[in-house]
Amino acid sequence: MKMYGIKTCASVKKAKAFFDKNNISYDFIDLTKEPVNEQKIEKWQAFTPATSMLNPRSKAYRDLKLKGKNISEEKAVSIIAKENSVLKRPIIEHGLNTHDKFVIGFNEEEYKSTFLA
Fold it and tell me: CA 20 to CA 18: how far, in whole Å?
C-alpha cells in the first residue's frame, strides 16, 4: 500500500497515525520529494476524476486562482502534474486494478470500513 502526501499536512498525519495504530504497513511517498506525473494521475482517473483530486483549500489552489473556474479533466491532470501541492491529501493507493482500494483524504469512518473490514 502506498500513501502519497506531504509530511506536514494534518490529514496525512491523521492517516499515518490510523495506519500505525492499526498495524497497517504502507510506503509513504513525499510529494515534495517524489512528485507524481501525468501517467500516475491518469491511472488514478480510473477511480476518480482528476477534478475531484484538486484541493480547493490548498494554498497552491488559491495561488493559481482556480476558484470558480470550470476546469476540464485534461487541464486538471496538467495542473496536478505541474503542481502536486494542489492534490487532496493523502492519496492511498493499494494496487490499481478492479479489487484494489483508492482513497483520497482522511475520514476515519471510511478508513475503518475500507482498511479494517
Answer: 6
Alpha-carbon Rg for the chain, nearest whole angstrom, is 14
Q: What percent of the chain has pLDDT over 90?
A: 85
Burial of 79 (C-beta count, 10 Å sphere; 0-12/13-18/19+): buried
Backbone angles phi, psi at 24, to 5 degrees: -105, 120
The parent domain of residue 83 ranges over 2-115
Residues of the chain with pLDDT under 70: 95-99
- Tell me the C-alpha to C-alpha distance, in Å, between residue 48 and each of 13, 45, 68: 23, 5, 20
C-alpha distance from residue 78 to each of 15, 26, 32, 62, 63 (Å): 27, 27, 17, 17, 16
Among 59, 62, 63, 37, CA closest to 50: 37
pLDDT in tens, 84-96: 999 999 999 986 5
Cell numbers for 96: 490499481
Domain count, the chain: 1
